[in-house]
Design a protein that fits this description.
The complex is a heterodimer of chains A (330) and B (84).
Chain A (H helix, E strand, L loop, with lengths): L27 H10 L10 H9 L2 H24 L1 H5 L4 H28 L12 H20 L2 H33 L3 H53 L11 H28 L6 H23 L4 H4 L11
Helix pairs in contact in A: 1-5, 1-8, 3-5, 3-6, 3-7, 5-8, 6-7, 6-8, 7-8, 7-9, 8-9, 8-10, 9-10
Chain B lengths: L2 H14 L22 H15 L15 H15 L1
Helix pairs in contact in B: 1-3
Protein name (chain B): Carrier domain-containing protein
InterPro entries (chain B): ACP-like_sf, PP-bd_ACP
Organism (chain B): Actinocorallia aurantiaca
């Protein structure tokens, strides 16, 4: 059977996909076979047009893209380094086999981002991680919880790690970054980047589907407590990564442009928030959505405070006075 | 820099940065509809104009619709005169 996600050019962003009825969710075996049908090659990407385009990029777009690609690259490196305990302690053989395919995906993603940054953008990967918000705010926790899977060797630890890994890092942060970066790459245009990000998005859709499947199973098996606790803590950290207190944002002096800029940034926050709330319902914890929304909103405000403190100037969203609250509708 | 020079320079910058390709931008051309600017491009344009004219936020400025090239030039004139 061919599904929409298998077809080149019709890859939905993870954040745009419709929720699937629980009884129609793919199994880990389904996701394995989907992986077999959805192979791609970094070496096959033709970077020539993108390489030429990067030499003509003006500073604003160059900075926007480099910030986004850096966060994505750093995130991919971290998930490559932290998946093995989840593979090893997977609940079933089908889960373990599926997660082995994911390990290959994550390696390919690192190769893609590093190759693209080096060959098309002319950027060495050296030192990229140091200034990334993911490195500073989220990666230490992901490392801690995935190490705990080895150390504690119990099912609760495995589900906690799945939450930080699949649901927050991939389902919220990567999904949002891939969508906004792909939109930017399309408009410039950077065809190889669009193609690569489309392939990565397709892979990430499988990863997030596995995470939701696993977390839902965990909730059903009585691990709802650790899953929710991890989810709320993960959201707190994710909001900080998304705002990026260490990443200087352009704050236009022209008020009309400032309003547009704030709306663009707030749009990214809203995509992530919406995604986070939908996932929570999807894994069987809809009653926790209001609490999760409140956690997210408070974390966002704190991150905006941290930005102002770090740079001694308000974040564009604050400067525009336009931080709106999302709705807990799902 | 007088207002005529500001308009000339704004037209030059908007024309050079035109997403449809560099071109001469007439004062009454609409930035989005005629010249292909989208929201990202408008933000970039604002940042370039700020650097070019050393603009700073002014208290009394309200967010206004910047429809035409002339609208942009008039805003720049206003911000330059407020700075002086």
């Amino acid at each position: 059977m061919t599904i929409a996600g298998d077809l080149p050019g019709v890859v939905s962003d993870i954040t745009e996909t419709q929720d699937v009825r629980p009884d129609l969710m793919p199994t880990s075996q389904d996701l394995y076979y989907r992986w077999e049908r959805q192979q791609w090659s970094v070496a096959a990407l033709d970077l020539a047009d993108d390489t030429a385009a990067w030499t003509r990029l003006r500073p604003f777009y160059r900075t926007e893209l480099l910030n986004a690609l850096t966060e994505l690259e750093v995130g991919e490196v971290t998930v490559v380094e932290t998946l093995s305990s989840l593979v090893d302690r997977a609940p079933t053989d089908d889960d373990r086999i599926y997660l082995s395919t994911q390990l290959a995906d994550e390696g390919r993603h690192v190769r893609f981002f590093q190759t693209y940054l080096r060959q098309a953008a002319g950027i060495s990967g050296e030192g990229l991680a140091d200034s990334a918000d993911y490195t500073n705010h989220f990666a230490p926790e992901l490392r801690r919880v995935t190490r705990a899977v080895w150390a504690e060797d119990d099912r609760a630890s495995w589900y906690r790690a799945v939450v930080y890994y699949h649901l927050i890092t991939e389902g919220v942060l990567a999904a949002t970054a891939l969508r906004t970066t792909r939109q930017l790459a399309r408009r410039l245009p950077l065809p190889a980047l669009v193609e690569g990000l489309t392939n990565v998005t397709r892979d990430e859709s499988r990863h997030v589907a596995f995470g939701m499947l696993a977390a839902r199973d965990g909730v059903g098996a009585g691990y709802g407590g650790p899953v929710l606790e991890s989810y709320l803590h993960g959201l707190d950290l994710a909001a900080r990564v998304l705002v990026g207190p260490l990443r200087k944002q352009a704050v236009p002096a022209v008020r009309t442009a400032l309003g547009i800029r704030a709306a663009q940034l707030r749009g990214g926050f809203d995509i992530a928030r919406d995604r986070a709330m939908r996932q929570l319902s999807h894994i069987g914890l809809p009653e926790a959505v209001p609490e999760a929304g409140a956690v997210w909103d408070r974390a966002l405000e704190r991150a905006l405070d941290a930005y102002a403190e770090h740079w001694n100037t308000p974040h564009p969203v604050r400067a525009a006075g336009a931080l709106s609250k999302g709705e807990d509708t799902r | 820099m007088n207002n005529e020079e500001i308009l000339t320079n704004v037209r030059r910058i908007i024309g050079e940065m035109c997403p449809l390709g560099a071109r001469e931008a007439g004062p009454d051309e609409r930035i989005m509809e005629d010249l292909g600017y989208d929201s990202m491009a408008v933000v970039e344009l604002a940042l370039v104009l700020e650097a070019e004219f050393e603009l700073e936020p002014i208290e009394e400025e309200q967010a206004i619709d910047l429809v035409t090239v002339r609208d942009v030039a008039e805003l720049v004139e206003h911000m330059v005169s407020a700075r002086a």
